[in-house]
Specification:
6-stranded mixed beta sheet
Length: about 400
Amino acid sequence: MENRFKNEPTQEIAEALQNNDPASAAQKIQEYLKQQEDIPLNIAVTGDSGSGKSTFVNAFRGIDNRDEGAAPTGCVETTMEVTPYPHPSYPNVVLWDLPGIGTTKFPAEKYLKHVGFEKFDFFIIISADRFTENDVKLALAIQKMGKMLYFVRSKIDNNLRDAERSQRDFNQAETLDKIRKYCCKGLQDNGMKSAKVFLISNFDVGLYDFQLLEDTLEKELPKHKRDALLFAIPNINEGILNKRREAFQAKIKYCASLSALIAVAPVPGLSFAVDTSVLVTVIHQYVLGFGLDNKSLQKLARSTKTPLDDLKAVMRSPFVLKEINKEMIIKALTTSASGIALSVAEEVARFIPLFGIAAASALSFTSTYSFLHNCLAALAKDAQNVLMKALKVNP
């Protein structure tokens, strides 16, 4: 179901509070946070046989062609039907591997209806060489139907390797520029007046134009879809880590507000009990979002040929490499002097006539906000250290 909160629900929350209805305000916050996790993003990937579209689907999802759940790859057309491939960590993001238009008997517009173009947020058309007349016909039909599309030229690493072996004065930047101009000219010759082509290696998405593609998609997607894209793309550089930290930081105020609203209820221990449950969920999201879970670290170690123990050695947060549960959260809170003071003060302030509820609410907001902010900072630092170690960069 499409997310109804396309903007932050601050006005709805404020109205509930003005009506002295903290329970409704809390419900709206919970609904908003849950819906943010479920925003659908459907990406269509198409191209002729051998173009590397299935490998792109796998690379975008951060998995190897040999992993379970990978899109099948090969030198011949392996995709004959529209096939969905959910992201392994964010199943709300689905890449759809489409048959190449050249392998079907449908003209462009009928092809789009056949694959169900309505459900896709945007299309990626992939080629391993020159874009064809079929590619342009499809692109024009996509534009006519009001959808975004992007041209991706794959296997750039192979082209550069061949050029370096055959050219006496090899220059990577010049070679990339020639490939880009060649692709754009092919599109223009077939009737595509203006087009931007992204040069990509499916086996090393940290190089060439993958970051530019991500930046373009983020800029052109509707605002409420951007985080879905941000967390699904491979963790390839510090820029993406910083964007994820900013996205997480923007939601802390909602978690803290939820804690504050629960603190209004004059039931000893209720706020603390609910807070710990919320904190477990949120910190788990941080660990997963930064790729600090065991599965993500193993993939990173394999893809960068870095010993797994070396990656683990640069992490300092107590929330990595362990099961995150309420006991761990309580221990972290109670070992913090400020956390102990705020928790005790909240329970005492709760029963002060008139001003007690307001005080308890403010203290609950402060303690939750402070705790999550500090945890986020520590995990973001760990993620940066892990990435630098994987890229063999000295901090």
